[in-house]
User: Fold ABC transporter permease from Marinobacter suaedae.
Amino acid sequence: MLSYPTVRTSLIFLAIALVGLLFADIAITANNPWRDLGNFFLGVLTPNFFSSEGLLTALLRTVAFAFVGVTVGGICGFLLALIYRFLPVRIFCAFIRAIHELFWALIFLQFFGFHPLTGVLAIAIPYSGIFAKVYSEILEEADPEPGRLLPPGTRTIAAFLYTKIPDCWAQLRTYTAYRLECGLRSSAILGFVGLPTLGFYLETSFSQGMYSDAGAMLILFYVLIATIPLWVRPKLLPIYVLGAPFFLGDGLPIVWGNVERFFTEDIIPSPIRDGEGLAGLMPWLGDLFANEALPGIWNTIVLTQIALVATGILALLSFPLISNHFGGPIRRTAGHVFLVIARSTPEYILAYILLQLWGPSMLPAAVALALHNGAIIGHLIGRQTNTITLRSDAVTGFKRYTWELVPRVYRSFLAFLFYRWEIIMRETAILGILGIYTLGFYVDSAIQHIQFDRAMVLILITALLNIGVDALGRFIRRKLALQTMPTC
Assistant:
């Protein structure tokens, strides 16, 4: 078995995660975590849907930010996809998508303040890079034969619209719908930095111990995600897109002097701003790297590797919950409900909830990342097993799992897992805002101390780290000949 490259690779990553556990801050520090956990579940079972007059407004603004951000990101991403073959464009898209939406929000808050433009750009910019990458891959896979059948002299734009787009339309539409679901999750967590979306009210309820209020917000969010096929219809999309900007709210007016000062003064390294030049810049960078960047990078990598392996284990354990080859319809329905809830809840919200219940450590973050990403991969693998036809005399029970199904889906499982690797690292970095010592902790601390120059350097390091992990993941997928699956 060790002769298989996929098995050796899996064992290497498992060993790295086990070593990481030796250095990780894994602990439950709350005084009575089980009581708090019980109170939380009691709050979910007894939701208070009439707790806040602004709850429905927050839900509406969550949807509005998602629609506007995804629409702008989709349009820009499609235009970038047309020229994605050029290296500078690919580098630019990789950079903007490597920075998490919350980091973009923290940047724009410094000069736009609590204005709707902050939330829209925080979603639209990274989504533009994501859309550009995925759209370009979809367009490249289009059948070239219809284009060859066009009469000579046909304009390039006409050829593109009448040959490639119809062939790719179903994939483009499916991925855009999936990205809208992601946009709703991104929009919800923007409330944790003060924007008037669902996360703002969720954080307020938890901080005040009002678990029934928080349970109501979570249930409404799950219903919103689960009913997307019912209320997002093609004929209604133009109405949603045109109407969404009017429900973003007004916010505070933009002070354009703050915008100018941010780019001309705030983000300039303080030694250069103070006239010390390169002689002062090097010690400044040395202090930044030694005390903030390197500890943040180390903790981000350790937590990422632990969460990656935990994600894989949870995915392998959870896909039988919805597989037709195990259990009956009642068990599969319960499995679907569990996986829908786990994958619909943003990692940031999961980590925030667990942090309130268990106390500050890497444990809430690792569990949140594993639950969310494991549920996504488990759902995809479970659906894949439903397309597999077994022999009539195939083994049953645990042997069916280990000898029949896992070997058949393992390569797809690894492809999904290594595709999520970069996404897990993005989330790991941003979870530092909750108090975990990843790069996001030091970014948030620098912003709190009005040291925007240090914050921008740390955000740049975060982006480069994510780009590096993405490149390494693609290299491993190529070496193992794993199919790239961008729809997860």
Notes: Residues 277-318 form the longest helix (42 residues). The two ends are 28 Å apart (CA to CA).
